[in-house]
Amino acid sequence: xxxxxxxxxxxxxxxxxxxxxxxxxxxxxxxxxxxxxxxxxxxxxxxxxxxxxxxxxxxxxxxxxxxxxxxxxxxxxxxxxxxxxxxxxxxxxxxxxxxxxxxxxxxxxxxxxxxxxxxxxxxxxxxxxxxxxxxxxxxxxxxxxxxxxxxxxxxxxxxxxxxxxxxxxxxxxxxxxxxxxxxxxxxxxxxxxxxxxxxxxxxxxxxxxxxxxxxxxxxxxxxxxxxxxxxxxxxxxxxxxxxxxxxxxxxxxxxxxxxxxxxxxxxxxxxxxxxxxxxxxxxxxxxxxxxxxxxxxxxxxxxxxxxxxxxxxxx
Length: 315
Hints:
Elements lengths: L12 H60 L5 H22 L5 H21 L4 H33 L8 H6 L1 H13 L5 H22 L4 H4 L2 H8 L7 H7 L6 H18 L5 H10 L6 H17 L4
């Protein structure tokens, strides 16, 4: 016998299905449009990034080749070409690892070291001239910035697709409510809640659970008087637990039929003893019997017992 869940009338099928179909069609259209825009942007930006890398390599080619001539003679050209190809391979492999969600930062660090080395060589060739040093360092800095932007985009996209990336708490919320924002961020990290809206919903349920414990045991006393199972549930409350499941979790797996039977026994005992059967009396008796029920559930039990009495089913 289910006593805590109300029956819901089925929603009309026609309009709902039409709205759902329209929403699905709109979502599909938006997704296709976004994918088309992404492909166009990639087709335009990828050649520009390649051109920037080639120009940067050409800008430092002569300087590095002249520096390598005493050691490599006629093959001095392979030093700048090999360094530029190595940088491109390292960065391309690093972006591929990011796309596969298997990042290995050593690839990026080595590429940065090679780029930094070429920049130092070219800056030294400028012989202390500020304008020359800035011109030599301009294209490598632009190239690194663009590559890091691509890496950031891939990392965010992969994190959202795999569900591993935790969304950030908005800056406005940090400014308006720094303490609660810190607690929200902490719970999102501890419970690995990746979506910010899911974190808000979980925070709301956590506050609701705490308010129920405060109502039952006192504003501060609940931290010591509440059963251990209820206090631990606040630390391990999953994001997908609905309200009815949380209310029933405080009874440590107690069935509804068992709890209702205990409430009926308490009512019969109160009638025999001539005691007034109230919500507080029912709650105290249930807790004395080992049922850690909240006041909300006690009220529901009392309502069911009154319905039984009105129908002539209570004894």
